[in-house]
Amino acid sequence: MKVISELKETNSFVRKLRADGKKVGFVPTMGALHQGHISLIEASKNENDYTICSIYVNPTQFNNKEDFETYPNLFAQDKAKLEEAGCDVIFTPSHESMYPNGVDNLLSFDFGSLTSVLEGKYRPGHFSGVGIVVSKLLNIVMPDVAYFGQKDLQQFMVIRKLVSDLSIMTEVKSCPTLREPDGLAMSSRNLRLNEEERNIAPLLYRVLKEAKTALIEGNDVGNVQKKAFDSIAANALFTPEYIEVVDFNSFSLIKNGKINNSVAICLSAHLGKARLIDNVIVEV
Fold first, then answer.
1. Which residues are designated catalytic?
2. Are 158 and 91 members of one domain?
């Protein structure tokens, strides 16, 4: 397994692969890898000749400086996991190479109504930072296919729009959220939970499943949403931020009535030092 940190070296390596007729899959990450990330690597390996994984903690998508500075650096462990999974290349650029002129006065992306709700509402500027770094990574790596997890559903929708609007020649795929045996969505942020917090964290998925069942049974969206929010807020350790039902295609909020097309139930809640997000898809 190769480890490359230079942008031009990575680009040249991929260009040679493409010239040799090889299909390249790409999994962008910020490290602190878990089995959810590895499932993306496995999906890429099943569909491509070469798989590249980037490990880069992108400063432009953090609203909280402390959150950025305390993001876990577990490169030795990450490398071992990727090697065991059969990843071919790790791309580990530096901040200096990704942002040679610093991160002030960068261009910004406006994804319109897609980012006016949920994460976009509570993390202003976050998706512009995501758009910048994903654009850079896709331009450097030039993959045939890039893989993302469903847990960050809104992020995937943003990236799909980015790739479409800018005519980037990469197919983007969303892969199912992997969960712990108790239902908690796998996330690097779970490392921030203490034992007590970890034990109650699966409440989020239970609430989502109950809400999904209620919507399928024809209950009013507003009532389902309120009950779900109140169920989380009833636990003193949780501070729920939002729970919303969105149209799966447009990502517009649905506030009342029965659902008549596919939707996603998305939530965010603070638990101790961790801010957790999750979602489920309801197909009708």
1. 37
2. yes
